[in-house]
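Duplicate of #3305? Posting structure anyway:
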């Protein structure tokens, strides 16, 4: 998924699947897409935590 913003402030999205891609320009759909993206980003680990995760999981086994 990609979210782009034009110089005029309009947001566009591109969602890619296994066999196709889709350009999203509808404002309501983009609002939902941006909220979902923000939620995922807030839950993501930072790079240092991402590198440490496999090691920590290995130690727990």
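Output from current build:
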């Amino acid at each position: 998924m990609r979210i782009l913003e034009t110089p005029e402030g309009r947001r566009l999205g591109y969602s890619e699947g296994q066999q196709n891609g889709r350009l999203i320009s509808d404002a309501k759909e983009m609002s939902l897409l941006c909220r979902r993206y923000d939620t995922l980003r807030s839950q993501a680990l930072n790079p240092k935590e991402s590198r440490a995760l496999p090691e920590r999981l290995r130690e727990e086994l």
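Confirmed duplicate; merging threads. Residues 14 and 39 are 18 Å apart (CA to CA). The first strand starts at residue 2 and ends at 5.
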